[in-house]
Amino acid sequence: MIKIQQNRRDFEYDIFSLVKAFYPDKEAATFVEEDNNKSPDEIEAVITVNYENNSVRIEADDSNGKHLMQSADINLDSRVEAKNIIKHLLYDILSLFTGRVLAWGTLTGIRPTKIPVSLIERGKTDVEVRQYMKETYQATQEKIDLSIDIAKRELKILKDIDYKNGYSIYIGIPFCPTTCLYCSFTSYPIAKWEKRVDEYLDALCKEIDYAASAFKNRTLNTIYIGGGTPTTLSAKQLDRLLTKLETSFDYLGLCELTVEAGRPDSVSQDKIQVLKAHRVTRISINPQTMNQKTLDIIGRRHTVEQIHTAFHMAREAGFDNINMDLIVGLPDEDMQAVKYTMEEIVKLNPDSVTVHSLAIKRAARLNMFKELYNEYAIINNNEIIEMTKEYAKKIDATPYYLYRQQNMAGNLENVGYAKEGKEGIYNILIMEEKQTIVAMGAGASTKIVFPDGFRIERIENVKDVDNYIERIDEMIQRKSSFIESNLL
């Protein structure tokens, strides 16, 4: 256990996130003075943050008597400046204390490219952006260059998107063939829920009706149908959903309609034909790995052969924008295992590849029952990530969006690579938070971006499918009350 001791709760989340970045495999907990009686028994290290008047003192101690301390003057009335000073001090101490250097420096947020995007939009040069990111966040030159390159590509891709008068839609289908070992998303095994899917679609259609009415004077730019696994729906149910969207919204300004056909074992010829008939422009067929042994370990319950079959089925149907998701850091996958996956992906030649670094969430079985999986090594490093980048180049795919998560293997990042003109526009919009995204379905989170581009508010739907079906009118009213009060 890594104990984080503070005498007040200022910047608690930022401090915790940075400590976890240095100790990704350790449990960590934050305590303030009144929580001292709750202190854990087994403590590997204690990080102490004390605020005194206009100064902060940070100390690190371990069970072997190692001790480091730094302090600085801060002005708590200037929150951003104070936070950056504190994270600088903490980073320097933890780097010396652990002997580690973090490629992303003090950056712990999930959207690092928002920083260079903002600076470039304000007219800053590449030199100025690099200097700011180095001095403010202590990121490595490699990661700074990556974020700048992606920021420029994002801005080019989004140049014709109307942020203020446009909007996007997310549709959540929370059903899956099975729940993967690493997954913590809200998903329900389709075998147990198939008799209630139509009830779920009934509720979803009511929410679609509301959104179509509330945003009738705006231009719809992108639709993303995710989950879960949307293709766990039957062909008839997919047709029902896509028909509802077509007849409810004006597609005149629509530049992208993505459907995740994520699990190859959920893809069939009749479903592919439904997607094609309804003008779906982009699909995602996600192997995660091309190693059968790993697929069996993580509970994917499909074969490598089914990945090939689903991909070729989509190509033969005329889909010219197919993405494939991969995960680096899966149990027992070393450099050679990832290399094999990349070689197989290159043979298929998809239009985009998204390379994720495994993030083990608290609610994932891999974490909840970790004693059952201790025999498996979780391996990820910059060398492996760089190798995936080189393989992406072989299909002429270059980085176009990036995001990070807590507890990522190797403390690295997720990167989307795409051929020119095959980028996922919705992916950029959700990461850069430049446009309102109306999200519908169980567990969906609507994100309202206000006209000034700075204020962002979220409206959450309940996660439980039963609750969503029963409380759909409440979900709609929640959206309606906020939108009518703030936007209409």
Automatic annotation (TrEMBL):
One Gene Ontology cellular component: cytoplasm
Instruction: Look up keyword Membrane and say if it applies.
Output: no
What the entry lists under InterPro entries is as follows: Coproporphyrinogen-III_oxidase (IPR034505), Elp3/MiaA/NifB-like_rSAM (IPR006638), HemZ (IPR023995), rSAM (IPR007197), rSAM_horseshoe (IPR023404), rSAM_sf (IPR058240)
What SMART domains does the annotation carry? Elp3
Q: Which GO terms describe its molecular function?
A: 4 iron, 4 sulfur cluster binding; coproporphyrinogen dehydrogenase activity
**Residues of the signal peptide:** none
Keyword set, alphabetical order: Oxidoreductase
State the Gene Ontology BP annotations.
Answer: porphyrin-containing compound biosynthetic process
**Radical SAM core domain boundaries:** 161-396
Quote the EC number: 1.3.98.3
UniProt cross-references to NCBIfam families, sorted A to Z: rSAM_HemZ (TIGR03994)
Q: What is this protein called?
A: Coproporphyrinogen dehydrogenase HemZ
The source organism is: Lachnotalea glycerini
Name of the encoding gene? hemZ
